[in-house]
């Protein structure tokens, strides 16, 4: 099924579930932004906002200023906080899957990833290591590897009884001949991400949650879920 058709199905799901889908998307964006912001601040690295303040005061900060408050303990804490991201991602996938399949949903679905806490973290760590090792060779093999494991969270959410390794293995099989299709779908959203960043720059608000995000996250999430369901149906056949 062409990417344009998958996106059309995703848009229909969104319009059929307005406005709560936007509220859930906003909550997801808020949670992920807080996690990213907190993880960054814990490292001790200074942000662009502080750099801009110093430039405005006439100070020309050197490269070393970025690491002036850098601390190892902060890195460890930041890594632990960042572990919340895959759990939130799994929860959002759970929400989008239910929404697309016309099942009952609510805001608490965003925390469903915590139900499979250890499996989600295991999938995250294993796939991170695999992608990192492939990326050491070249960038392209790393990108290909990342798409090979992309369906692991979806498989887990769809069937929580499966182990992390089983989800990863099934994702590899599922994505044979499909990696380019999903890559093209992701590329088609670059314009939305560019618009999102433009709003962040021009209209900065707390945690950088612009209006565009409330549309982008559900749109992207549901399109990927439609892709997953399409691949699953083809595999089943």
Structure annotation, total helices: 12
Quickly count the domains: 1
Strand content range: under 5%
**Helices and strands, in N-to-C order?**
HHHHHHHHHHHH
Oligomer: single chain
Radius of gyration: 19 Å
Gross morphology is globular
- State the secondary-structure class: mainly alpha
Main sheet summary: none
Q: How many strand elements?
A: 0
Give the averaged pLDDT, no decimals. 85
Q: What is the share of helical residues? A: over 70%
Low-pLDDT windows of residues = none
What gap, in angstroms, lies between the N and C termini?
Answer: 15 Å
Describe the structure.
The protein is mainly alpha-helical. The chain has one domain (3-236). 72% of the residues lie in helices and 0% in strands. Helix 5 (84-100) crosses helix 12. The two termini are 15 Å apart.
């Amino acid at each position: 099924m062409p990417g344009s058709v998958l996106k059309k199905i995703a848009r229909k799901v969104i319009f059929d579930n307005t406005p709560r889908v936007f509220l859930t998307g906003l909550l997801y964006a808020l949670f992920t932004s807080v996690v990213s912001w907190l993880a960054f601040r814990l490292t001790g690295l200074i942000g662009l906002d502080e750099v801009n303040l110093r430039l405005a005061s006439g100070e020309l900060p050197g490269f070393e200023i970025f690491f002036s408050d850098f601390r190892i303990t902060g890195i460890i804490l930041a890594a632990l906080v960042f572990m919340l991201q895959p759990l939130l991602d799994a929860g959002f996938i759970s929400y989008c899957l239910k929404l697309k399949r016309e099942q009952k949903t609510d805001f608490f679905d965003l925390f469903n990833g915590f139900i499979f806490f250890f499996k989600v973290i295991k999938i995250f760590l294993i796939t991170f290591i695999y992608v990192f090792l492939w990326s050491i060779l070249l960038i392209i093999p790393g990108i290909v590897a990342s798409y090979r494991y992309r369906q692991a969270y979806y498989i887990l959410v769809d069937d929580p009884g499966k182990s992390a390794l089983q989800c990863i293995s099934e994702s590899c099989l599922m994505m044979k001949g499909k990696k380019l299709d999903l890559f093209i779908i992701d590329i088609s959203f670059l314009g939305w991400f560019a618009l999102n960043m433009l709003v962040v720059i021009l209209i900065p608000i707390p945690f950088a949650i612009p209006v565009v995000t409330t549309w982008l996250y559900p749109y992207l999430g549901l399109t990927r879920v439609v892709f997953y369901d399409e691949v699953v149906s083809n595999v089943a056949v």
